[in-house]
Specification:
- By secondary structure, this protein is α+β, with helices and mostly antiparallel strands.
- About 20% of the residues lie in helices and about 25% in strands.
- It has 4 helices and 11 strands; from the N terminus they run βαββαβββαββββαβ.
- The strands form 2 sheets. A 6-stranded antiparallel sheet has the order 7-8-9-10-4-11. Strands 1-6-5-2-3 form a 5-stranded mixed sheet.
- Strand 7 and strand 8 form a beta hairpin.
- It starts with a strand and ends in an 8-residue tail after the last strand.
Length: about 230
């Protein structure tokens, strides 16, 4: 979010109408879940700020429309194919999660303004009692700059962003297998399930692969495969 530019909901709506453009206006909220609750060894609490994608309007309170192109995550068969390739010869299978994947990509489409929950207000907005300072608008909104979770087009935007980087370092799409890639020089096979990157090949090749990917995408430290899509 651009926290340096705080405006009132009504002011943003009037400015959009005056400029003759359509903008999107919505709320964001926080949710906390226990990730991997089915496996105590991996379970952890995770908090995420989410865009309320089921209640988005234009500046005139009309229902907002999205491109809704949809993403194409790897199928179970595609992921198992990558794992199978890792069983040949001296190959190994490694995985890495993208950190805060969606917000690595810039938001595309109409200008979007959001109401933040009070717990997300910066201290500069509050007086000594924790109330909104008098000079700020009653319904303060800020512009959303990143493809936040919950925004209907965020999955597509993230997929486009991540796949462009994979192509730039030499990965080629495997025909008829969504989100499965092959690198002809490193002889590495890779699949992508939203933010879960799975790769197989020789260990030295995987080291080059991960280093190149992490030059353009924020990934956790790769590790050998332990569980994949809920399967040990």
């Amino acid at each position: 979010f651009d926290m340096s530019d705080v405006r009132g909901w009504r002011d943003v709506a009037r400015a959009a109408n005056a400029a003759g453009i359509t903008i999107h206006m919505a709320r964001v909220f926080g949710i906390m879940v226990e990730k991997h609750s089915e496996n105590p060894a991996l379970a952890k609490m995770k908090y995420r700020v989410v865009y309320q994608g089921n209640n988005v309007v234009t500046q005139n309170f009309e229902v907002a429309f999205f491109q809704d192109l949809g993403s194409s995550p790897v199928s179970l068969e595609g992921g198992r194919c990558v794992i199978s390739y890792g069983l040949f010869g001296d190959n190994v299978v490694e995985q890495a999660d993208a950190e805060k994947a969606y917000i690595q990509a810039l938001l595309e489409g109409p200008e979007t303004w959001v109401l933040l929950p009070e717990e997300a207000w910066p201290d500069s907005w509050k007086d000594e009692n924790g109330n909104l300072k008098p000079h700020l608008p009653r319904r303060p909104v800020v512009r959303m700059l990143r493809a936040l979770y919950g925004q209907p087009d965020s999955g597509t935007i993230w997929e486009k962003h991540s796949f462009q980087h994979l192509h730039s370092i030499g990965f080629q799409k495997v025909r008829n297998w969504p989100s499965v890639f092959w690198h002809p020089d490193w002889r590495v096979m890779m699949s992508v399930y939203v933010d879960d990157f799975l790769a197989s090949g020789e260990r030295s090749a995987l080291k080059k692969c991960w280093a190149a990917i992490r030059e353009g995408l924020e990934l956790e430290t790769p590790k050998e495969l332990t569980n994949y899509l809920g399967a040990d």
